[in-house]
Amino acid sequence: MFVGIDLGTSGVKVALIDNEGRLVASETSALTVQQPKPLWSEQDPDSWWTATKNAIHSLSKQQNLSAIQGISFSGQMHGATLLDESNKPLRPCILWNDSRSFAECTELDKDQPDFRRQTGNLIMPGFTAPKIAWVRKHEPDIYAKLKKVLLPKDYLRFKLTGEFYSDMSDAAGTLWLDVSKRIWSESLLNATGLNLSHMPSVVEGNQQTGSVSQQVAEELGIPTVPVYAGAGDNAAGAIGSGIIESGQAMLSLGTSGVCFLASDKFYSQPGSAVHSFCHALPERWHLMSVMLSAASCLDWMCKLVGETNIGDLLKRVEDVVDVGVARHAPIFLPYLSGERTPHNNPNAKGVFFGLTHRHDKVHLVYSVLEGVSFGLRQGMEKLMETGAKMDDPIRLIGGGARSVFWRQMLADICGRQMAFCEGGDVGPALGAARLAQLGKQGIENLAGICPTPTIVDLHEANASRVDLYEPRYAKFKLLYSANENLF
Description:
By secondary structure, the protein is an alpha+beta fold. It folds into 2 domains: 2-241, 2-Layer Sandwich (Nucleotidyltransferase, domain 5), CATH 3.30.420.40; 291-421 and 456-483, Nucleotidyltransferase, domain 5 (2-Layer Sandwich), CATH 3.30.420. It is 38% helix and 20% strand. Helix 15 packs across helix 18 (463-483).
């Protein structure tokens, strides 16, 4: 058996698969996010370790973990975890959806053209490098003590093994990796005052990065098995969904919303606000569009209207929404944490447009689902502008993908086949476990270990609904343009 540990923003999920790749069990331990100032988003790194231990202990109560053969990771990308010379965190981790470093992005982009050339990406506040530039400027005492920079999941690796490693897919999101060559760039590190000694070793996602230490093995009740590199959350989700060949694509409806497209070569169009990253497998890359608030918009809406059962609320939306209601519902801009693709605007804000006395919370929830779906469509269109090929069906993963209603809405809005597959509710944790299996059994077994998953539900675009959404999508895009200067 193999274990995948997925460090998300809202929780740590631990998944267990058998030697045939079937999901045996999973457990989740919740996390909280601190937002001490506007546009800030932080977490305590040691809370990740506590949550991981809790999830493994819970898993051990239902499964015998003595038979596991390997462990790997997936994790929220871009977070800046800063360690001192004793390998202790110097401050809370600055997360992927933190936008405080906008000024530093502008400075780096102006002074260091190599960032775009070597990484294939725009410099955005979500990435790791501008976060370090911000710490250097605003927290010089902390910066002076900095000895190691780790991405979130790689801090868990250190706690498990005592080793410092990262993988290509996660490292590509730092803006310090030469993405085409798949190596750390010394010139980009130097631009933020760092050098290779500050970085973990970088390897492919299926490579071994040490073993569980004896002390941790005894504490968790697991064997001292090999630990493999793993992947950033989206690349791991792609592995879990069998997105391993060029042209295969998926949409992830998690806290953020992501369209992920696999390729067999490195595409680079930095001006498009599309991310160009390494995949979790050797000699593979991927393109990615990212919206910073997706299913989190739905969570926010439910809290705002005092609803605790999202499933029941979605059922009420589905029961009352018809073509007439949908045509006259408010338009929602889902930029509760700013936005990446296509706007690269950390100051973008959420907007409800067109409210009247007849609208109630059910209409607002509908508008939230629709607005997030419009944002995902915009991202898909940007991916296609690179010239990359995108095949149907597009696979859906993430917590939001459990909603049949939302899945069909996405098919109608995007005009594409959408497939919800077995394991779609586990996603990155399943992909992490499969990377451990690939590490143990060999990359030559790729097709067998990462098969195309069984489709549970296939959604075809409904022509009548496509016609309904087109004018609303046009208004959605105009609404951002009309408000951009006001943000």
